[in-house]
Amino acid sequence: MFEYFPKNYVWNLALNLAMEMGAKIGELDEMCRPLLDAARQGDDAGTQAFLASWEVMADKLIAQACQDEERGRLLSAGTKLGRAATYLLTAERMQAFDYAPRQALYAKFQDTFQRGVRLARENCERVEIPYEGDVIAGLYTRAEGVSGRAPLLVQVNGLDSTKEMLYRVGLPAHLARRGVSSLCVDQPGTGEALRLHGLKARVDSEHWASRVVDELETWDDVDPARIGLQGVSLGGYYAPRAVAFEPRFALGAVWGANHNWGEVQLARLNREGERPVPHYWEHVRWVWGARDMDEFMELIPKITLDGVLERVRVPFLVTHGEQDRQIPLKYAHQTYEGLVNSPDRELKIFGDFEGGVQHSSVDNSAYGLDYISDWVAERLGGHVQ
Question: The organism sits in which domain of life (predicted)?
Answer without folding.
Answer: Bacteria
